[in-house]
Amino acid sequence: MLLAGGWRLAETLFIHLNVHSCYSLLSGAAGPEDLAARARWMGQRALAITDSNGLYAAVPFQKACEAEGIHAILGAELTRPELREHGGKVSAGGFSRERPAGPSRPGDRAPLLVRREAGSNLLSEILSSRPIDADFRFAHALLRGP
Q1: What pLDDT digit, counting tens, does each position of 89-135 carry?
Q2: Which of 12, 13, 24, 134 has its CA 20 to 30 A from that of 43?
């Protein structure tokens, strides 16, 4: 493939493992189809999608990657929930934004990638319990195994 200025872009083994689509509020702009097409154009053989706290683009992303002939890696970027006080109780949820503005502190985010069905089930369980469990702890969720 030729780029502007005559540069040639060779196929690469490099894989982006933390990509946000337009399904991540304030984090991504491109749709799953555009991401897959761009990865193919760049000669990449695989691409991971890790939208914030959900698998929102998983199905369209997987279909787009299949159409482009690249391997889809599914995942999500788990973020530390904002804690808000409601009537004297601290509870998780009520997010004003999925990702806080500005630089994050170490440990505020973790991209989780799925390799097998057991991992997919665990990720789905973590993502489902995160907004409704007042006792949700980021570190504990990451330490659970399949």
Answers
A1: 444 444 434 444 445 565 677 888 998 888 889 889 888 888 787 77
A2: 24
Q: Which of 45, 19, 27 lies closest to 111, judged by CA?
A: 19
How far apart, in Å, do the first and last CA atoms of the chain sit?
41
Stated length of the chain: 146
Burial of 21 (0-12, 13-18, 19+ CB in 10 A): buried
pLDDT per residue as tens digits for the range 77-96 = 988 765 434 444 444 444 43
Q: Which amino acid is at 84?
A: R
DSSP-based three-state secondary structure for 110: strand
Alpha-carbon gap, residue 82 to 92, rounded angstroms: 6
Q: Are 24 and 50 in contact (CB under 8 A)?
A: no
- Residue in this structure with the two tokens 């982006």, named with its chain if needed: 16
- Check if the beta carbon of residue 59 is closer than 8 Å to that of residue 31: no
Question: What whole-number distance in Å separates Cα of residue 62 and Cα of residue 74?
Answer: 8
Q: Is the pTM of this model over 0.85?
A: no
Amino acid, single-letter form, for residue 34: D
Q: How far apart are CA 112 and CA 49, in angstroms?
A: 10
